[in-house]
Design goal:
The complex is a heterotrimer. In chain A, a hairpin with a 4-residue loop joins β8 and β9. In chain A, α2 crosses α3. By secondary structure, chain A is α+β, with helices and mostly antiparallel strands. Chain A has a five-stranded mixed sheet with strand order 1-2-3-5-4. Chain A has five helices and nine strands; from the N terminus they run αββββαβαββαββα. Chain B has a single domain, classed as GHMP Kinase, N-terminal domain (Ribosomal Protein S5, domain 2, 2-Layer Sandwich), CATH 3.30.230. In chain B, strands 1-2-3-5-4 form a five-stranded mixed sheet. Chain B has a four-stranded antiparallel sheet with strand order 7-6-8-9, sandwiched between helices. In chain B, α1 crosses α2. By secondary structure, chain C is α+β, with helices and mostly antiparallel strands. Chain C has one domain: Ribosomal Protein S5, domain 2. Chain C contains five helices and 14 strands. In chain C, the strands form four sheets. In chain C, strands 1, 2, 3, 4, 5 and 6 form a six-stranded mixed sheet that branches. A four-stranded antiparallel sheet of chain C has the order 12-11-13-14, sandwiched between helices. Chain C has a two-stranded antiparallel sheet with strand order 7-10. The longest helix of chain C has 34 residues. The chains are: A alpha+beta, B alpha+beta, C alpha+beta. At the A-C interface, α2, β8, β9 and α5 of A face α2, β14 and α5 of C. β9 of chain A pairs antiparallel with β14 of chain C, so a sheet runs across the interface.
C-alpha cells in the first residue's frame, strides 16, 4: 500500500484496540438482534421504512463556485464544485464535457478504522459510482472539451455514504449554476435477514455485508440515484446476495424515498435563489446610496472649484 | 565450477536432451485478429505471445526522419513464474529485456523504408521456464512476418551454457534449471541468413578459450531455430490463402 | 473498443438490426457468440483457464499462497483479483494505459465474490486464526472484442473450478507458530467448491432494447449498460446430475450500471430479471463444459490445445 511519507503514519502492524473488546467479538446473531427491538424499532428509534431526517445547506465553501453540506443525522458530507476548466493532458476533442469526481474520507470519519490519506480502493470506487450517477444528470453538451471538478469530503461516516455524496454533489452542482436536466437524489437500503432497512447506519451496513449464519438468506446493500421528474434511474449499485424479487422490491421503495428528498433539495435551492436575489437587491441599493453620496460630494467640489 | 553435473555420464542433460539439442518448438502465426501481426511460440515449457501493430504514424516526440521507430514492450504474466510476480512490467529486468528486444529486432527490420513511422511490438510471457528473451525474439520475428513488415532476414535468438564434466561441452537452449545452477549463460540474437550477430549478452565469467565454443553452439542453435521458423511460416502461408483471407476479406 | 470509429450510418445499421431482433452477425438479441474454453493451460499456476469469446481473449491463472487470516475473520481465507490489460490487445494499454479499465474490472469481480453465498471463504482455512490460503486470481486480457466482464467472470469460474490446493498432511501448533507439512504428491490435492461462484452478464441498451453479449461495435452504439452478477446453480456441477435436489434460485451478488446514460425504473427491473435468466443459462452451459473437461481429464483423454489450435 502506498504510504504518505510527509506524515507520521504510526507503526505499520498496529491494530485498533477495539478488535479486542467484547463488542467486536459478538457473533452475527447477536449483532442482528441488537439492531432491532421487539417493536420493530431500530436503535435510533426509527421504524424500518423510515429514513433519517436530512439537513442540507449551500454555500459552505467561499472559494468554490458551488458548494453544499448534507447531514443525515451522523453522516456528514461536504461537497464543492469548481468552474469548468480545460481537460488537462488531453489532445483529442471530446464533444461532451467531463465530470471529475473525487470522494475522500476524513481520517477520523470511520468508527472502525482510521482512514489513510492516500485514496484507497473504496474511495476510488465511490468516486467512480458518483461520476456515473452524475453524468446523466448534467447537460454535458453545454461545455465541450471542459471538465467540472466535484470534490466530496466525508466528515463523518454513519452509513449511506454514497447516497449522501450524490445528494450533496447534486445540490452543489445546482448551486454552482451548472446546467442540469433534473435534480438528482439518492437513497440506500440495507437488507439483513430478509428485512429491509431504509437509509441504514454504518452499523447496519456492516452487518448487511457480513456473512449470515444460515445460507441462502438475503443480505446486502442497494443504492439508487434517481432523476425524479424524468423518472430515470441515474445510478444503481447492489452488493451482497439477494434474489431478484428482493432487489425489485427494494428498488421500488428506494424510488419513493428518492422522491421524498426532492422537495427538500428544491426548498434549499429556492431559498438559495431568494437569498441571492435579496443579496443582489441589497447590493444594488447600497450601490445607489453610494452613488448618491458621491454625487452630493461632486456638487460640493464643483461649488468649491467655481468659487475659486 | 558450480555447473559441474549438468551433463550425466551418458551425455544427457537434466531434462533428458543431448548437449546440442533444442527444446521442442511449436508455434503458430496469426493467433489474434485485431493486431496487424501476432504469433504464439512454445519453446519447451516457455510460452510466449507476440503482437505487432504498425507501421503507423509515430508520436511527435519519437518521430525520426531516418527510419521507423521500433517500440518494444516486454511483460510477464503475474502467474508465469514459479513464485507469483507482483507486477507484470515496469521492473528493471523487463525494461532491460525490452531494450534488448528492440536492439535485436531493429537489426532485422528494414527501417529505412518507413521514415517518420512507428512499429509497436508487444511480447507477453505466459509461462517462463528459462530463455524467455530468446522465445520472445523468435515469437516477435514470426509476428513481424505475419504483419508483412519487410525484414532483412529472420532474427533468431538462442542461449548456450557450458557443462564442465570430464570434457567441457557447450549446452544449447538453456532451461530454467540450468540457468539457476549458476553456470555461464550466453544469449545470442543473430541473423543466420546473413551470418551477422545482432545482440550478445553473457552472465557469469567464462575463460576466453571456451568462448568460441559456446558462441558457435549458440549460433548453431539460432540456425536450427531459423529452419523451424521458416517451415512454420511456409506452412502458415500455404494454408493461409485458403482459410484466413477469405475470413478477413 | 479502442480507436474504433463508426460512422452514423453504421451505427444506424446496428440500431435497426437490434430493433428487428437480427443483429449484424446474424444473432438474435439474446444470443451469445460461440465460445472456446480450455482449462489447465498454464503449468506454473494452481489452476488456469483460457476463454475465447469471438475476438475477446482472456487467460486466467490462479496462484495459491499461505497467509495470515484477518483478525476479524479468523476462520476465513482470502481472495484477491488482479487484472492486467496486455498491450497485445491494443497499443493504448502500453505502460500504465490499461490500469483504469483493469481496476474497474477487478473491483467488479471483488464485489461479485464478496458474499459468502457466492464463494465460501471457509474452505480456504488451514488453521483457524493462524494460517489460511490466499488465492491470487490473475486475469490477463489478451484481446478485447467486446463484453469483457462476462468473459472474465466465465474464465475466472472455470479457473477456480480447475484449481487444486495441495492437501495439508499435518498442521502442528508449535509454541504459537504453525508447522505445516504439505503433500508432495501432485495428485494428492483438494478441489475447490465453486458451484455457486457468480457470473456477470452485461446487458447493453441499444435503442429501446437490451442486447446480451455486445460486440465492440455494439458497445460503441450504447450509452448505458447494466451488469448483473448472479450466483450459479449447484445442480449444474454435479456429476450424477440429480435433478430432484433442491434447485436453488440464482441470487444477485452485484448489479452495476455502466456508462453515462440512465434507465427508466421499469426497464431496469425487466433488465435485472433478464440478466438473472441469462446467468442461469450461461451457468448451465459452463457447467456442462467443465464437467466434460473434468471427465476427459480423469480418463486421460484430454488433449491440450493452448494457443496452437
Amino acid at each position: 500500500m502506498p504510504i504518505d511519507y510527509r506524515r507520521f503514519n504510526g507503526p505499520e502492524d498496529s491494530v485498533s484496540y477495539k478488535q479486542y473488546t467484547k463488542n467486536f467479538l459478538k457473533s452475527y446473531e447477536e449483532l442482528c438482534n441488537e439492531l432491532i427491538d421487539e417493536n420493530e424499532h431500530r436503535k435510533d428509534g426509527r421504524a424500518l421504512d423510515e429514513a433519517r431526517t436530512m439537513y442540507a445547506r449551500t454555500n459552505m465553501i467561499s472559494q468554490a463556485k458551488g458548494s453544499s453540506y448534507v447531514e443525515l443525522k451522523k453522516t456528514k458530507v461536504v461537497c464543492s464544485v469548481f468552474d469548468p476548466r480545460e481537460i488537462p493532458n488531453k489532445n483529442e476533442f471530446s464533444p461532451l464535457g467531463q465530470i471529475y469526481c473525487e470522494v475522500k474520507f476524513a481520517p477520523f470519519s470511520c468508527p472502525r478504522k482510521r482512514r489513510a490519506l492516500v485514496p484507497d480502493a473504496e474511495e476510488k470506487d465511490l468516486s467512480l459510482s458518483l461520476k456515473k450517477a452524475l453524468e446523466p444528470a448534467v447537460c454535458r453538451y453545454a461545455f465541450p472539451n471542459y471538465q467540472i471538478d466535484v470534490f466530496v469530503y466525508i466528515l463523518e461516516h454513519d452509513g449511506a455514504c454514497l447516497a449522501g455524496a450524490i445528494n450533496a454533489a447534486g445540490l452543489a452542482l445546482a448551486n454552482a449554476a451548472v446546467p442540469m436536466y433534473d435534480t438528482i437524489t439518492a437513497c440506500s437500503i440495507a437488507v439483513i435477514e430478509d428485512k429491509l432497512y431504509v437509509d441504514p447506519t454504518e452499523e447496519e451496513e456492516y452487518v448487511a455485508n457480513m456473512t449470515p449464519a444460515k445460507e441462502g438468506i438475503n443480505h446486502g446493500i442497494i443504492t439508487v440515484a434517481m432523476l425524479s421528474t424524468l423518472e430515470q434511474v441515474a445510478g444503481f449499485t447492489q452488493l451482497g446476495s439477494m434474489d431478484g424479487t428482493c432487489v425489485i422490491n427494494a428498488t421500488e421503495i428506494l424510488q419513493k424515498e428518492c422522491q421524498n428528498i426532492v422537495p427538500i433539495i428544491h426548498q434549499i435551492l429556492v431559498k438559495d435563489v431568494i437569498h441571492n436575489i435579496d443579496l443582489s437587491e441589497k447590493l444594488e441599493k447600497e450601490a445607489k446610496l453610494r452613488e448618491a453620496a458621491l454625487n452630493e460630494n461632486m456638487e460640493e467640489w464643483k461649488k468649491l472649484l467655481s468659487a475659486d | 565450477m558450480p555447473a559441474a553435473d549438468l551433463l550425466s555420464s551418458q551425455g544427457l542433460r537434466l531434462d533428458g536432451r543431448r548437449a546440442n539439442e533444442l527444446r521442442r518448438i511449436r508455434c503458430k502465426l496469426g493467433v489474434f485478429t485485431q493486431p496487424d501481426g501476432s504469433a504464439y511460440l512454445e519453446q519447451g515449457n516457455t510460452k510466449v505471445l507476440a503482437a505487432v501493430y504498425g507501421p503507423h504514424q509515430a508520436s511527435k516526440s519519437k518521430s525520426s526522419s531516418d527510419g521507423v521507430v521500433v517500440n518494444c514492450q516486454y511483460s510477464m504474466a503475474t502467474f508465469s513464474t514459479g513464485e507469483r510476480k507482483n507486477r507484470p512490467r515496469g521492473d528493471r529486468k523487463s525494461q532491460e529485456i525490452s531494450l534488448h528486444l528492440r536492439q535485436a529486432l531493429t537489426a532485422a527490420i528494414k527501417t529505412e523504408l518507413y521514415p517518420r513511422s512507428q512499429i509497436d511490438i508487444y511480447v507477453e510471457v505466459l509461462q517462463a521456464d528459462g530463455g524467455t528473451f530468446c522465445a520472445g525474439v523468435n515469437a516477435a520475428t514470426l509476428a513481424l512476418i505475419d504483419a508483412g513488415i519487410p525484414l532483412r532476414a529472420y532474427v533468431c535468438a538462442c542461449s548456450a551454457s557450458m557443462a564442465w564434466g570430464a570434457r567441457p561441452q557447450p549446452l544449447v537452449d538453456v532451461p530454467h534449471v540450468e540457468e539457476a545452477a549458476g553456470g555461464v549463460v550466453l544469449t545470442v540474437a543473430s541473423l543466420p541468413n546473413t551470418g551477422s550477430t545482432a545482440l550478445l549478452e553473457m552472465s557469469h565469467k567464462l575463460h576466453m578459450d571456451y568462448f568460441k565454443m559456446v558462441f558457435s553452439s549458440a549460433v548453431q542453435g539460432c540456425r536450427d531455430i531459423e529452419v523451424i521458423l521458416d517451415r512454420a511460416v511456409r506452412d502458415h502461408l500455404a494454408e493461409g490463402w485458403t482459410e484466413q483471407d477469405t475470413v478477413t476479406v | 473498443m479502442a480507436n474504433l470509429l463508426l460512422s452514423p450510418l453504421e451505427k444506424m445499421y446496428i440500431l435497426h438490426g437490434v430493433r428487428d431482433d437480427c443483429r449484424s452477425d446474424g444473432r438474435t438479441n439474446i444470443d451469445y457468440r460461440p465460445m472456446e474454453l480450455e482449462t489447465d493451460v498454464v503449468s506454473h499456476a494452481s489452476g488456469s483457464a483460457r476463454l475465447r469469446l469471438a475476438n475477446t481473449d482472456i487467460l486466467v491463472g490462479v496462484k495459491t499462497e499461505i497467509d495470515l487470516p484477518n483478525n476479524d475473520q479468523p476462520g476465513y481465507g482470502k481472495l484477491e483479483f488482479f487484472v492486467d490489460c496486455s498491450a497485445n490487445a491494443t497499443p493504448e494499454f502500453e505502460g500504465r494505459g490499461g490500469e483504469q479499465l483493469a481496476n474497474s474490472i477487478s473491483n467488479m469481480m471483488q464485489k461479485a465474490y464478496q458474499s459468502s453465498d457466492a464463494f465460501d471463504l471457509k474452505q480456504l482455512c488451514i488453521f483457524e486464526g493462524k494460517q489460511c490460503w490466499k488465492l491470487y486470481i490473475d486475469i490477463l486480457i489478451l484481446e478485447c472484442g467486446g463484453n469483457l466482464c462476462d468473459a472474465v467472470s466465465l474464465a475466472v469460474k472455470a479457473a477456480l473450478y480447475n484449481t487444486r490446493l495441495p492437501s495439508v498432511k499435518t498442521a502442528l501448533l508449535d509454541g504459537g507458530n504453525v508447522d505445516l507439512q504439505l503433500s508432495d504428491d501432485p495428485y494428492d490435492n483438494k478441489l475447490l467448491n465453486v458451484d455457486l461462484a457468480p457470473l456477470l452478464v452485461t446487458l447493453c441498451k441499444i435503442g429501446d432494447k437490451f442486447v446480451v453479449d455486445p460486440s465492440a461495435e455494439e458497445e460503441n452504439c450504447s450509452v448505458i449498460s447494466l451488469i448483473v452478477g448472479a450466483t450459479g446453480n449447484k445442480t449444474n456441477y454435479n456429476i450424477d446430475n440429480k435433478k430432484n435436489e433442491s434447485c436453488t434460485d440464482s441470487k444477485c451478488t452485484t448489479i452495476v450500471m455502466n456508462g453515462s446514460g440512465s434507465l427508466a425504473p421499469k426497464t431496469l427491473k425487466n433488465a435485472i430479471k433478464q440478466g438473472i435468466e441469462a446467468v442461469q443459462f450461461l451457468d448451465q452451459a459452463l457447467g456442462q463444459a467443465l464437467l466434460r473437461e473434468r471427465r476427459e481429464n480423469v480418463t486421460m483423454k484430454k488433449y491440450s490445445y493452448g494457443f496452437l489450435k
